[in-house]
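Anyone have tokens for FERM1 protein? Sequence:
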Amino acid sequence: MVSSTEYGSHTWELLLKVDHQHEDVEKEFLLQVTGDLHVGGLMLKLVEQIKIAQDWSDYAFWWEQKKCWLLKTHWTLDKCGVQADAKLIFTTQHKMLRLRLPNMKTVRLKVSFSSMVFRAVSDICKMLNIRRSEELSLLKQSEGTLKKKKKKDKNSKEPATEDILNLCNSPVSSGLPANPGLYSKTMTPVYDPVSGSPASSTITWFSDGSSTEQNCSILALSHPTCSPETLAEMYQPRTLADKAKLNAGWLDSSRSLMEQGVLEEDQLLLRFKYYTFFDLNPKYDAVRINQIYEQARWAILLEEIDCTEEEMLIFAALQARTRANKLSLSSETQDSTCESEVDEVEAALSNLEVTLEGGNKSNILEDITDIPKLADNLKLVRPKKLALKAIKTYWFVFRDTSISYFKNKESAQGEPIEKLNLKGCEVVPDVNVAAKKFGIKLLIPVADGMNEVYLRCDNEDQYARWMAACVLASKGRTMADSSYQPEVQKILSFLQMKNWTMCSQTASEPENVDMKPECFVSPRYTKKFKSKQLTARILEAHQNVSQMSLVEAKLRFIQAWQSLPEFGLSYYIVRFKGSKKDDVLGVSYNRLIRIDMATGDPITTWRFSNMKQWNVNWEIRQVAIEFDQNVFIAFTCLSADCKIIHEYIGGYIFLSTRSKDHNETLDEELFHKLTGGQE
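Reply: yep, here.
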């Protein structure tokens, strides 16, 4: 006879595997459980069976078949869907991971494999003392970008272990919270007494002062460039399709590392994913500025972004400036602390003082009543069908976000020959300072594609004013916007760097820089010029930047990178609904661009500001977007998962909501609402 208690019980056997380091203890345990047992109770039961006295607080159940964590310990096994055939592994949530930083240095640290990637990246950035973690994400290198590297590795040894920086002892990497004071808006900068540099989070957390100082210098300072041979062996995208491969491996920010197949000791790339660098402050952002600079530098050297010969020489000169190794670490960090950017508290007090004193009322009234406009003679260049160009001078008037042109100044009171609305257009610089060529290429959206218009200015000052107005108008802003004058100054500053007039005889080599020009330019220019020619031209360009501090040189490099036409574009191969051929979709911080894959020419631009809604049909993996004026587009992504593009769009919209007035605490729920989708 079977007793009533045994008959009424619904117990069943569940095989559990424990991931521990004790070789003399079993790793598999068979437990009798019931469906109403909660996950926390299962943990307690298992730990009692293991009989090892250790801290099990970081352990959780990983469900191997379903690729998910059982983190809700109050849920019952029935509610989780766990049955007798489930393979549950009791393993640590924090595991070792290798990260390749933008400066090509590899760090090894303990990361949460159970948190969403968005949260994991936030913790990583706290360890590395990088503010604004929402701008970064983790990238898994695609097979296509590794092929060239694998061929090289056949005859080479594994990288030496001393090249890897171990950061596995910090509280964050062990699952403990970071010091929130390091990320406070009103924080007082803490300086390292030895180097004079702002103390990073690693200094605060690590007890070993000497190793800490070394860690910070590796992350915050530039290091010697790689050899031309190493550069030639790295993956260099040749086509738009190649560039699309670079963006195929972004991890899903709404899922954990483990859920995406990342294993302990795997290597991922930590990169700036979103090209909107908010609130860069040399006082607090030594590591962040250096890593942005390094990502920009490698993008230039590996030709991930196109630039002209003149621009390449400027980038080379600025690199040479940052390599001036006679200046000590303290010089650089003192420069950074002496920047004109004041502490935000001081700025707030200054603004309050101006407000209390009443400010300059006449200027305020003038700004409100006066409608800014530009009026000048410019040359209009229109491409002809027979490859000839018609160049003619007209009287141009720029008002609000539109350009009108007339036959001459006297006829400006009448109807214009043509009025061009620049809102949503593409603005491309066409400049050669040496040849006195100051052109602006406008690609204006029309019903059947893009209308090309070229404007030719007479001098630098005229070009800067009109170019700045065009850039703002493309974003829907006028010259009344407060960013107009800074934009003009930024353009003039960049032109000034290009305008070197010293001959090579007077150009002297920067002190203590081992001038190997092949290390400062992309392989294309190494092949075009002999080493001596290249050295002379870089030194000529260096004359205009030789007085810059090292931090200023990095910031100028970043600004020059941002001024390139292709800056901030992430490419994907897509197939638009109703189209019979593949196109390239460029995703930027404020727009989407449809690009012809064969020619590389933009076909259509859609601004995020005109977007009404977007969604994904997860069954057919199709992204659908609706814009103003009943414009509707839909496409499937061929070079990556459509979730990546969906997350890009939502991520940029999320970043556009940031404000200096808000606390730096991120609205993580809003990010996932905009990027997660309903898969």
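The longest strand covers residues 373-383.
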